[in-house]
Amino acid sequence: MPSGLTRRPAWLAGTVVLSLLLLAACGKKAPEVDQVVPVIALPVQAVDGVSAGRFPGEIHARYEMPLSFRVAGQLTQRYVNPGDLVKKGQALAQLDPTDAGNQLAAAKAALEAAEHRLLFATQQRDRDDAQSKQNLISRLQLEQTQDAYASALAARDQAKQQFELAQNQSRYTTLIADHDGAITSRQADVGQVLAAGQAVFGFAWSGEREAYLDVPESRIDGIVVGQAAKITVPALPGRAFDARVREISPAADPQSRTYLVKLTVDQPASLLQLGMTADVILQSGKSSTVAISIPATALFHQNEHPAVWVVRPADTTLELRPVTIARYGERDVLIASGLQAGERVVMQGVHTVSIGEKVAPIAPPHPEDAPQ
Predict the structure, then answer these.
(1) Which of 6, 46, 125, 307 has the fewest CB within 10 Å, making it most exposed?
(2) Which domains does the chain possess?
(3) 8 Å CB contact between 149 and 141
(4) Rounded to whole angstroms, how far apart are CA atoms 224 and 51?
(5) Can you tell me the distance from the alpha carbon of 57 to that of 263, in angstroms, rounded to the nearest whole number?
(6) If residue 93 lies in a helix (H) or strand (E), which one and from where to where?
(7) What single DSSP character describes residue 49?
(8) Would the CA dihedral through 91, 96, 100, 106 be positive or negative?
(9) pLDDT per residue as tens, the chain (372 positions)
(10) How far is 359 from 319, CA to CA, in rounded Å?
């Protein structure tokens, strides 16, 4: 070593090395804490596993029909309006009665004339019959008298029928309610000339209520006449009504390609107002099988097998659990096995999570997105 250079102490070299190690340690990031991911997850509920389908519906009366006059004429008065409740025998509308009154008067006059001719023919028959017994008239004259009497009797009967018909025609100028019910629509205005049978009002009978469903052709095979159902309406929360399928349309609607299904409510339900929206669950049998209903957005697939994301209650991590499907619906899926009521399941965003991920369950931002 040259004499001009001073030897560095060993402690100084050790200090330099230690400093370098400390600097390297400061450059490393601190270990990351497990990140909690918020997910929309809710407890699932058990439902009746025999449900054949859930459909939106609308409340109707058992009997709905147009009301019309039996005769033609000009509408002069309307006594009711849509929404009015009417009683059996109540007058609803009136046609101009002039023509019907003239026909009634003419029929009455014709009947009186026919009765007078019959009275004369009867008297003539009685006289000729007495004279014939005394051989005062010929047999031919008696037969002619009897023929005249028979013709007069037939003419009187015909005139009587015409008079009764004219009476009916006169009564038909007033539209009468033949049942208690409600006016649902107005289809003719005052001053309008109506043909016989042309609709004036829409009318719904009081009493029995029905629910109308539009069922897609892919699901109509699972519905039969007499099938049981449960009906709920948003306007009556907490109330459920038993019903049965009464009629299934034999042909699909040409525009919507759906089949009209009518269900009759078992018990009279005055609370069910016409036009209310309904939620109808059709039952497919008498079994008490219980299943789990989840929205279709909660279904995931592990390879080719259906599965759902379940939040473990112990550590709020995710588990991908295989399930067995009982039925696919339009908006929901019925799970036959693999889930228990009360377990928390991811309802939305199933393709953005992974196994073992720690999550924070939250409710849907919109209440209507929660499963019913």
Answers:
(1) 6
(2) 37-49+289-369 (2.40.420.20), 53-62+207-283 (2.40.30.170), 64-96+173-204 (2.40.50.100), 98-171 (1.10.287)
(3) no
(4) 13
(5) 10
(6) strand 91-95
(7) T
(8) positive
(9) 444 444 445 444 454 445 554 445 444 444 444 688 899 999 988 775 555 578 999 999 999 999 999 999 999 999 999 999 999 999 999 999 999 999 999 999 999 999 999 999 999 999 999 998 998 889 999 999 999 999 999 999 999 999 999 999 999 999 999 999 999 999 999 999 999 999 999 999 998 999 999 999 888 877 889 999 999 999 888 888 999 999 999 999 999 999 999 999 987 667 888 999 999 988 865 444 567 888 889 999 888 889 999 999 999 999 999 998 877 766 788 888 889 888 999 999 899 999 999 999 998 876 655 555
(10) 11
CA–CA separation, 186 vs 189, rounded Å?
8
Provide the token pair at 205.
């009978």
Tokens of 367: 């209440």
pTM: 0.58
